[in-house]
Structures are given as structure tokens and as C-alpha cells.
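If you are new to this repository, start here. Below is one unmodified record pulled from the training split, so you can see the exact layout before writing a loader.
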Amino acid sequence: MFIGCHVSIAGGVFNAPERAALLGAEAMQIFTRSPQGGKAPELTPGIISEFNLKAKSYQLKDTFVHTPYYINFASENNRIRYGSISVLRDELERASLLGAKYVMTHLGSAGQLPEKEANEKTIEALKKSLEGYAGSTELLIENAAGAGKIMGATFSQIAEIIAGVNHTKLVGICLDTQHSFASGYDWRDFKNTLKKIDTELDLNKIKLIHANDSKTELASSKDRHEHIGKGLIGQEAFKNIVAFAQAKNISMILETEHEAVMEDIKFLKSLRNNS
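And here is the target side for that same chain:
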């Protein structure tokens, strides 16, 4: 399992590998476009070649792509919904060009819809995104922190959606430790939390972990990342999380504030190397 972090693609996607390496990352997560919106920068053969050369020269083992923030598969606004379908497909194709292992996406919000209807719309949208897709990059759903009618706050809901989509390229989840803590999954009670997730989803569906401590308390429904060991999840819980990830060969990506992410990477590596 590899340990890394999210890095910027400012100035071009080919700048990301060096930024990741300077932070001590063995793997990296990127956006391939602005997460807020706008046209995606073109990935020319030259740009792709430079990206791959740099990723290789800096010995980065894996690249993961995060979809933009505005995706909402259950939106009652067709422009947003069909835009989300189109962007997800585009991100899968772009990630395949870059040789990325996974694209991860949030699901969006149910808005005024009942959960059953929102699930059905989301399943239908994900099926459309994957229709005829033959790229190498696989798709993960990321769990959410649970505010309002946000989708994917429980692993049972995500399991239902994965089963409903039933596509070979939708392989599982990216588990965010902070989001799950904010949704009531207590990593300090490690064994019981693992049991709960296994019952709701199946632990084998966890393909990647976003390693983030939490600024806010258990079941807060607030998405507030903190540096590892500085938050309410705590160091002891992360020892267990890292040991689990190592046993299952699941890579870990940090999404903590940039000024101290290097220390977070070092700390997770020390847990891995001493387990």
C-alpha cells in the first residue's frame, strides 16, 4: 500500500508528480480540471507523455483522480444532472489517458426527493456515465459527511447504489475517515466500526482510503479535515486504520492542509513501517 496526498495541477497536469515527490508522497490524487467548473484543459499526446515520464522519474506508484465538486446525480435540474453524467464519463476517459488507477466521485444531494427516488436517479445516472466505457481507470464512490440530504453518508446506501449500477468498472468505494466519523462511524471503536461497515457494504469494497482526522465531533455531519493525530479521531485510531490498510493493500491519500501535509505523510509512513 502506498501513502500520498492531493496535489495541485497548476501550470499543467505534468507539474503534479514533482509536487507530490517533494512532499514525500508515493502516490498522488489530482483534479484534471478546475473542481469549481469551467472547460477542462486539453490533454494532448505531448502533455500525457510528459506527465507519464515525470510520474515514472519521481517513482510515483499510483495516480487517483477526484471528480469536480459540483457533481449531483440526483439533481432535479436536468442541466446539472446531465452535466454530472457527462463530466464523470469525461473524467474516466481523461484518467485512462493519464494511466490513473481510480476516479472517485461524490454522489451529490437528494434535495427534495425521497431517498428511494434519489437512489434510483443516481443509479440511472451512473449507468449512463459508464455506458460503453472501455477505459482502464476504475470508478469508486466516496462516502460523504452527511449534512442535509447529502447522498452516500451511509455505507448501506452506497452498497445499494453499487449493486443497482452493477457494472464491472464500478469496483467499490474510497473511504474517507473524516466523512465517515462525521456520519457516525466511530474509528476509536475500531473493531465494531469495521464490523458495521462490513455488514453494510463488505470490507472488500474498500479500494482506497482518504486519511483525514476530524476537527468536528462524532456524527457532526460536518466536513472538516484535521491533521492526523491533531483531531478527534486521534493517533490510536489511525494506528489501527493503517494496519488494516496495510493488511488489505489499500493505499492512503491525505487531504489535509498543505502546510503540514508532509508531516502527515511521514507520520502515516512511520505507522506503516512500525506495524
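Two things worth knowing about this chain: The chain is about 40% helix and 15% strand. The CA atoms of residues 74 and 121 lie 5 Å apart.
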